[in-house]
Amino acid sequence: MARAGTVVIVGGGVVGSSIAYHLRRDGHAGRVVVVERDPTYARASSFLAMGGIRQQFSSAVNVQLAQYSTRFYAAFDRALKVPGHEPHVNFRQRGYLFLADDASADRLEVRVERQRRLGASVERRSVDQLSALVPGVRLDDIRFGVFGPDDGYGEPRGVLAGFRAAAAAAGAEYLPAEVVGLTCRSGRIAGVELDSGEPVGADAVVNAAGPFAARLGKMAGIDLPIQPVRQQLFRCALPARWPYRFPVVIDPTGVHWRHDDPVTESDPDRLVVARTRLNEPPGENFDCDLSRWESDFRPPLVRRVPGLKPLELVEGWAGLYAMTPDHNPLLGEHPAVSGFFLANGFSGHGLMIAPAVGKVLSELIRTGRADTVDVSCLDAGRFDRGDLVHDEALI
Ligand SMILES: Cc1cc2nc3c(=O)[nH]c(=O)nc-3n(C[C@H](O)[C@H](O)[C@H](O)COP(=O)(O)OP(=O)(O)OC[C@H]3O[C@@H](n4cnc5c(N)ncnc54)[C@H](O)[C@@H]3O)c2cc1C
After folding, report:
1. Which atom of ligand 1 is nearest to the CA of 47?
2. Whole-structure pTM value
3. How far is the CA of 346 from the centre of ligand 1 (A)?
4. Where are the beta strands (DSSP E) in the chain?
């Protein structure tokens, strides 16, 4: 149902701030209030992410959300500049490269065809083409690569700061407070209660609480199928400047990496390296297990790129994925509580689709219809219906 009054957004990460920005830009007439409890964002996923941005998905809805978003990111630093803030997302469209070995080749072959049919910018690259694209990467066990030339990576903290500054400049109000309760009347949302005890009335409330979304759902009497799951990243320094810039490279083992470019001439060349642990237990665990660098990350990376052998670990950190049963988000108004909107459960791809999510939520809140991308398949009811969204291009 469309709403014109006050919209309260709980959580001012990239998703909450993108929604606030789009609401104001799209001409929402009422107040837009973003409640964010931690102005340092130390535990926000947006602050801790890797920064990968790609349109290589295998479901229509994810491809469309990602296509809107890659275009948005390509213009971000120019378009979201506001007095007092110059965004620095620095979206480098160096591509995303999935390497296919014997075990994954058939699956990736089918996937690349499907991605093409869905309109994603994606190319199949032969081994000869790969040796020119990524010299120094061992290819003797590789059958081909799947390359998204428009994909790449940007700076997550630049996205966060840029969306927040642009939303505030457009008139969104940021409240440094924690939401500790939601007020509902006759099945409709009526507002939020802050930790100060102050109530804020609202015609719509958006759950943009990232990995903490299920707690907010409980305040509305709803069980949201979202669990926080730790994800670790490592930054390492190369002994010398690598002769070219890596795309995001996804090894068949699952280890993947991107360049972290030097800012000054004297900075070392660096990489950020990731690998999802499939059996990671759910929980709000921010401890970085440094032993994983030597056990899980470094060996497959160096096997794939022997020239990286002398690299040195700089730091490791951990953040939380917000996981749903099908690893895809919940978007839209909750069927049981009118006016309670969800923008949750992004697992590892919330940063890359945050622009489109902001646009679509703005449309749903203002007009009751998502025109930019039809996200009806990502509704909260799909888990009860057994109608999960399958996308095998998730890492
Ligand atoms: C290690 C790691 C690597 C990742 N890499 C990528 C990547 O390469 N590409 C990609 O697209 N995605 C990546 N992701 C996922 C991406 O970071 C998230 O999907 C995205 O940042 C989610 O944004 P958000 O705004 O929903 O959540 P968050 O950034 O977590 O923001 C939620 C905010 O809500 C606030 N909040 C929560 N509860 C309350 C409350 N009750 N009251 C007030 N405030 C509240 C929190 O303080 C927080 O700031 C990665 C995530 C991690 C952890």
Report:
1. 29
2. 0.97
3. 8
4. 7-10, 32-36, 52-53, 96-101, 123-125, 142-148, 152-153, 173-176, 179-185, 188-194, 199-201, 204-207, 227-237, 248-250, 256-260, 270-274, 312-323, 330-333, 340-344
